[in-house]
């Protein structure tokens, strides 16, 4: 791929053809990633080390932590961010290969339809991630986790585990839910903006 294609691709990703799309890029790329990368590490970075059960033994702590966290929230949200970026990346790669200028995307129906489809697919992925997050993490992190240690052949099949900084994790969960909702709203608003531009209710850029 030539440098011109790479430049067109990067410009398309950083500067979408709609005003709301550009705001979404700023919100998604800056605020959301900063929140996850910096604050997420501060909240979840040492969780496994401070997760303790009764009896406080390494094998029990490790077994119960893996049961408590089938996937760590940081990994889940990082995967969510990458997957949600894929539809837009494919579209801008297509636009770069076809030498489509950003200002021309909203002028031709086929380009506009393809772009709307990429935004709609982004909405579907965000909603799917929202549902999966509820299944994995719920809306609240409790201070006590009851772990089933029957597989370890312990005397007691259920043991109590202490979850560190559970209140901070609850706040962080709510914040990530909020970011997902905001992103979906921005995507819906972007489709609405495109429709208004195609109907002539808004001036094209």
Automatic annotation (TrEMBL):
Name all Connexin cysteine-rich domain ranges.
125-194
Q: What are the record's GO terms for cellular component?
A: connexin complex
- InterPro entries (UniProt xref): Connexin (IPR000500), Connexin_CCC (IPR019570), Connexin_N (IPR013092), Connexin_N_sf (IPR038359)
| UniProt name for this protein | Gap junction epsilon-1 protein
Annotated coiled-coil positions are none
Organism field: Sclerurus mexicanus (tawny-throated leaftosser)
Membrane-traversing stretches: 25-44, 75-94, 114-134, 171-192
GO terms (molecular function) for this protein are: gap junction channel activity
Membrane topology classification: Multi-pass membrane protein
Domain of life of the source: Eukaryota
Keywords noted in UniProt: Cell membrane, Disulfide bond, Membrane, Transmembrane, Transmembrane helix, Transport
